[in-house]
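Course assignment 3, question 2. Fill in each field.
Student: A.L.
Task: Predict the tertiary structure for the chain below.
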Amino acid sequence: MIIFKHNDCLLKENGFNHPERKERIESILKSIKQIKDYKIIIKDAPLADLETISLVHPKKYIEKIFSNIPKSGLIGVEKEPLADTMLCPDSKKAILRSCGAGIAAVNELMSKNERVFCAIRPPGHHAETTKAMGFCFINNIAVAARVLQNKYGVNKIAIIDFDVHHGNGTQEIFYSDETVLYASSHEFPLFPGTGSEQETGVGNIFNAPLKTGLKGKEFLKIFGQKILKPIDTFKPEVILISAGFDAHVRDPLANINLESEDFYTITKQIVDVANVHSGGRVISFLEGGYDLLALSESIKQHLLALKN
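Answer field:
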């Protein structure tokens, strides 16, 4: 198991009382050190290059984001007073390290067949082709998928997103691409408002909207039927995970009631499908999860399941 992280990801500031904060990564790294059951190699994420990012996002879009980075203070990319996707003076390197982690993870997976977890921020699954939102600027998992296709010739990729918020960006990027299956379980209605079952792309989009207050047993039943079943039929060569831990009962931004141990079961079920169809090849990317205790516990369960 390889984990990519970088201290540049700790430097990004979002302002007072913002849920997406550096302590998320710090709590994860502390939790990882407590895992004694198997070998974990921690590596520093490289900086992503503009050429690779442009497999998903136009260069002008990326350049515009970077040109808006302030020399001091914070700037929101959305209109005030609703801005919560913030740029600070240290944003550029954090954004490039987060994307670079996924690119490096692809290289490790394909050269060494090592499973990888990317402990990075800012997250990515809300970032659309030309729109930053929901704390996200570059769609890290989408760039990784395109690297798998363009560099390694992988034909069929499945992206499983169990963040409590729908990954509107990932869906938008691959909406008309039958080579990439996107499957998401998410509370609905909830930010960003997308993710109904009627959104099906070209038969490659599978959304499982969840009712507020749903508990683990009900979640796992829906997840098996509406997420894992289509993946099993699709038979992907690689599985990528948008791993958000904000469906936890403790999380402040949503109302799905999973316990930390449920993330072991969810991840183990994904790994089982990967072992059947994908040669066990899995990369996981941190997305949401805003209660530090819940995040710390859930990450440990996630990583323990990824080793199998």
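Instructor remarks: The longest strand covers residues 180-187. The mean pLDDT is 97.
Grade: pending
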